C-alpha cells in the first residue's frame, strides 16, 4: 500500500514526531490535515495487516483481543439483526445505530486497547479493502464484527481464495 512510502518519506525524525503526535489526546488538535493524513496511514496499515492475516491463517483460529469470547457474546446478543456478511452503512452510522453502538463500545474502555481508535472495516466479507467496500469504524466495532465474522466462517472465502486451499 501507499502507506509504506508515505511513512518512509517522513524519515526517522518525522516518523518519531508522527508517533508522538498520534499519542496525544484528540482535544490537543483542531482539524489538522497532517494529523488526519497520519491517522489515515495508520488505519490503512492496520487494514493491510489484518487482511494479510485472514488471507494466510484460517480465520476461525484467530484471537484478536484478550476478551474475544466476551466481545463475541455481547455483540451477538446486542446486534442480532445486523447482517455482518454484507454490512450497510446504516448499521454503523445511522442515529439509531450510533445510540446502540455507543454503550456497547464504551463498556470496553480500559479493557480493549485503543477501543475508540479509527479503523477501517470491510462492508462485504468476500471483497478486499477498496474505497467502495470500506467504512470507518471504531476499533472495538471492528473487533466485535470481525471476531463474529471469523467465528461464523464468513471470512473463510478470503482465506480460501488467497491461500488456494
From TrEMBL:
Q: Which Pfam families match?
A: PBDC1
Question: Where's the Polysaccharide biosynthesis domain?
Answer: 35-159
Per the record, the domain of life is Eukaryota
GO CC terms, sorted: cytoplasm
Matching InterPro entries: PBDC1-like_dom_sf, PBDC1_metazoa/fungi, Polysacc_synth_dom
Q: Any idea what this protein is called? A: Polysaccharide biosynthesis domain-containing protein
Amino acid at each position: 500500500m501507499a502507506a509504506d512510502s508515505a511513512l518512509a518519506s517522513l524519515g526517522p525524525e518525522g516518523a518519531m514526531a508522527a508517533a508522538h503526535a498520534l499519542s496525544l489526546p484528540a482535544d490537543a488538535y483542531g482539524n489538522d490535515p497532517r494529523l488526519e493524513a497520519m491517522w489515515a496511514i495508520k488505519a490503512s496499515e492496520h487494514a493491510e495487516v489484518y487482511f494479510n492475516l485472514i488471507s494466510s491463517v484460517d480465520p476461525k483460529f484467530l484471537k484478536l483481543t484478550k476478551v474475544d469470547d466476551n466481545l463475541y457474546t455481547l455483540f451477538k446478543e446486542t446486534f442480532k439483526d445486523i447482517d455482518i456478511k454484507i454490512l450497510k452503512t446504516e448499521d454503523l452510522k445511522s442515529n439509531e445505530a450510533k445510540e446502540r453502538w455507543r454503550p456497547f463500545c464504551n463498556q470496553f474502555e480500559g479493557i480493549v486497547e485503543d477501543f475508540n481508535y479509527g479503523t477501517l472495516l470491510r462492508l462485504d466479507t468476500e471483497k478486499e479493502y477498496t474505497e467502495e467496500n470500506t467504512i470507518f469504524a471504531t476499533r472495538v466495532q471492528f473487533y466485535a464484527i470481525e471476531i463474529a465474522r471469523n467465528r461464523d466462517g464468513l471470512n473463510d472465502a478470503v482465506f480460501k481464495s488467497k491461500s488456494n486451499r
